[in-house]
Amino acid sequence: MAIFPIRKFGDPVLRLETKPVIEIDDVVRTLVADMIETMYDAPGVGLAANQIGITKRIAVFDAHDELGARVMINPEILEIAGEIEFEEGCLSVPGHYWEITRPGFARVRALDLEGKEVEYVGEGLLGRVLQHEIEHLDGRLLLDAMPKRMRKRALKELRDEELGLT
Ligand code: NI
């Protein structure tokens, strides 16, 4: 197993739409094990493959429940509902947290490591992490989930940090 460096905001790979997995083979199984190790090492509650530079439609997450680490391969959102305001961060934008309003409930269809179709259904942390990781796989970041003015402020914050102004 291996821990990968996590790509940070500004890295173009985070803006790429990932490609569906055609075959779940040993390469994919090793990648998933490495992604879980990298997520726990960070530590974080979710990690998408493009966050370690691999443009496959795979994400892992651990929503702090009894099920532990889970994987979603080729996930699609079937349903989102409700609205919840929650402090949200991202391993690709380390050290920053924003109060982001988004649907609280999500239902997702994906494949597991055996290639079996699974559904993940949840709200709260689970609902949010499902949406956040699938956004990564679509080349989006949490800044895109913000209203325009909030995004402008967040971008300024990140720019100031990059310039060493904070
Ligand atoms: Ni993230």
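^ nickel (II) ion complex. The beta strands are 46-48, 58-61, 70-81, 84-88, 98-102, 105-111, 117-122. The two ends are 36 Å apart (CA to CA).
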